[in-house]
Amino acid sequence: MSERARLFEELRRAQDQATSAQVAEARERLFGAPPPRRSPWGLALAGGLLAALMIAAAVWRSAAPPAAIYAVSGTEGALPSAWISVPPEAPLPLEFSDGTVVLAAPGARTRVLSTTHRGGRVVVERGKISVSVPPARGAEWSFEVGPFTVLVTGTRFDVAWDAPAEVFEIEMRDGSVKVSGPTIVGLTTVGAGQRLRIALAPEAAEAPAAGAAPLASPPAPLPEARPAPAPPKAPRPERSAPRWPELLRAGRYQEGLALVPDLERECRAASAQDALLLADAARYAGRKPESERAHRIVRERFPGAPEAALAAFGLGRLRFEAGDDEVAVRWFELYLAESPGGLLEPEALGRILEARIKSGELEDAQRVARRYVARFPAGPQAPAARKLLEPRR
Amino acid sequence: MVERSFRRPAEERKEGELLLLQPPDDELLVRRAQAGDPSAERMIFERYASHVARVLARLLGDRGELGDLLHDAFLVAFKSLHKLRDPRALRPWLTGVAVNIARAEVRRRRRRRWLSFLAPEDLPDVPLSPSDEGSSAAARAVYQVLEALPVEEQLAFSLRFIAELQLGECAEALGVSLATAKRRIRRAEVSFFERAQERPELASYLAERRAP
Fold it and tell me: How far is A58 from chain B (nearest CA, A)?
């Protein structure tokens, strides 16, 4: 780096350290309420006072606008969400705040019909989705896949509806689901390792479609059993080629990443949001080591910024997925410290709880469970946390 | 194109409802904000506040009034969002709003300084690490030198060399043609480094320019 470049680099670094407080100030003035914050002393109070505070905190949190950067809810009742047509280049992950992930395969068309505090309804018009629902008592997820309905409480599975061939296929990886639909009397249960294939058209029942691929093991992007026919393309006006941020924001991860020859270098030059976008895209594309480096660059370059906290969460998630629970917990704790009341708090705390339960450290797990129940008494992990806190004989 | 679901306004959401964690694209956000959805404005702010704050900091160099200016920038942006013809161009459009806010602020400061006979040395410090006195002085000197340039040259130089915008982005943010932006940046670059040579705080950074 030249001396002149170093001068401006030092300027930028110092300025970046200074902006987050100003952003918070402007946020408060523009939108009134500050992002919800945890009470640092709330946990220290006992008995009825604690319960009263919890209720008050819950009311306050529900009244305050969310501080999320990446948050879009599904819609309900008369306001159904938009259809999501997944582009042919890359799968599109839909992540929910209870930890549920729906990975829609390229070419799939899906829609989040509704969400509640227990789960949601997802419609798949065509194509394949890979679903992971964390086990939780009372969870109610349903997936309407073509004419079939899959009822889920907590499990991982792949399900597809090949609309032209009228073939429904589900393959279980963990847990079990109940399926209803044509040719099924009542509900049928499909358990771990089982696969159910129902062809409604006679010719499809006799011979699978050419090029049909069995449902493989996700979460890697999966080929479709039969690609849905592309809709007729209308001629488009000439416009300049989109840049990678636009492509990544549109969920076209592979295409966007293809325009980034050196991901780390790009992260060092991009804005905080764009660098985080790159880091997440690399994760969705399965380029986890690069994703980890990119998240670290975000933290290096934008200390104190909201994106740095989100990068901490991303790093925790990457380490959690890699089975490195101890390191994951540290990153999640860092996220919680840097983003008090942040939208991903339930997920971060939930994963810390899961890691502690897995490690068998009862005292640690109970401590986290108490924290979780205090913060999210109706959260998806609350039943498991309460069970952990039950007196043992 | 990927269609996206969208968060309903807070008052329509049920308590405890799960959130689908996916970013809507700018086009959808802008259209919702133009239709009066306050949650879309909030999301635009969350997505671009850091960017706008950085542009303002690069252009003005200090943080004393940055919170106010950032607030003003988004207030102006939300009021004039209906003028944004291409919703996909939200980011460069917001950059342009930030430049306009910074331009007004630079002019206001110059008027104020002229009225109160303040010397450039009386400008507030650029916030830098307290442990780095040397670079703090250098940063202050950079903005003092920039203050001596014509306003438009100051903005052009800051966008190109401090904010590191591409030439096309500079032109768009300044609201001028590419050729004009290039000329302005070139003039500013020459003026800046001529004046900077006279500042001892910048000597170590400019040493390479003196070398044969």
Answer: 9
Backbone angles phi, psi at A172, to 5 degrees: -90, 140
Dihedral (C-alpha) A349, A355, A358, A363: value to the nearest 10 degrees?
A: -70
Q: Between residues A178 and A363, which one has the greater pLDDT?
A: A178
- List, in order, residues 6 or more apart from B1 with CB less than 8 Å away: A85, A250
CB B21 to CB A95 under 8 A?
A: yes
* CB-based contact B2 A87, cutoff 8 Å: yes
Greatest C-alpha distance within chain B = 70
- β-strand pairing of A167-174 with A119-133: unpaired
Element (H, E) at A341: none
Q: Are A384 and A357 in contact (CB under 8 A)?
A: yes
Mean of per-residue pLDDT scores for chain A: 71
Q: Which residues have C-beta within 8 Å of that of residue B192, sequence separation ≥ 6?
A: B145, B146, B149, B157
| CB-count burial class (<10 Å; 0-12, 13-18, 19+) for A205 | middle
pTM of the model: 0.41
CA-angle at A290, arms to A287 and A294, nearest 5°: 130
Handedness of CA B47, A280, A141, A112 (dihedral sign): positive
Residue-wise pLDDT tens digits, A182-238? 767 667 888 877 888 887 765 444 333 333 333 333 333 322 323 333 344 444 444
- Regarding an ipTM greater than 0.90, the answer is no
Pairing relationship of beta strands A101-104 and A92-95 according to DSSP bridges = antiparallel
User: Chain B contact for A31, CB < 8 A?
Assistant: yes
Those residues whose C-beta lies under 8 Å from the C-beta of residue A28, and which sit 6 or more positions away, are: A34
**A241 CB near a chain B CB, below 8 Å?**
no
Name the 3-class secondary structure at A81: coil
Which chain A residues touch B159 with a CB distance below 8 Å? Answer: none
- Work out the average pLDDT over A70-90: 49
A43 shares contact with chain B (CB less than 8 Å): no
Name the residue facing A10 among B68, B135, B161 (closest C-beta).
B135
CB B203 within 8 A of CB B181: no
Q: Does A75 touch chain B (CB under 8 A)?
A: yes
User: How far is residue A49 from each of residues A45, A46, A374, A377, B129, measured CA to CA in Å?
Assistant: 6, 6, 12, 16, 43
Q: Is A122 on the interface with B (CB under 8 A)?
A: no
Q: How far is CA A47 from CA A44, A51, A389, A391, in A?
A: 10, 6, 15, 17
Q: ω before A219 within 30° of 0 (cis)?
A: yes
Tell whether A264 lies on the interface with B, counting CB pairs under 8 A.
no
Answer yes or no: are the C-beta atoms of B55 and B99 closer than 8 Å. yes
Q: For B150-170, write each residue's pLDDT tens digit.
A: 999 999 999 999 999 999 999
Among A23, A122, A339, which would you mutate to test the B interface (most chain B Cβ atoms within 10 Å of its Cβ)? A23
Q: Please give the Cα distance from A316 to A348 (Å, whole number).
A: 8
Strands A140-145 and A119-133: parallel
Q: 3-class secondary structure for A119-168? A: EEEEEEEEEEEEEEECCCCCCEEEEEECCEEEEECCEEEEEEEECCCCEE
B136 contacts in chain A (CB < 8 Å)? 14
Residue B210: what pLDDT?
Answer: 45
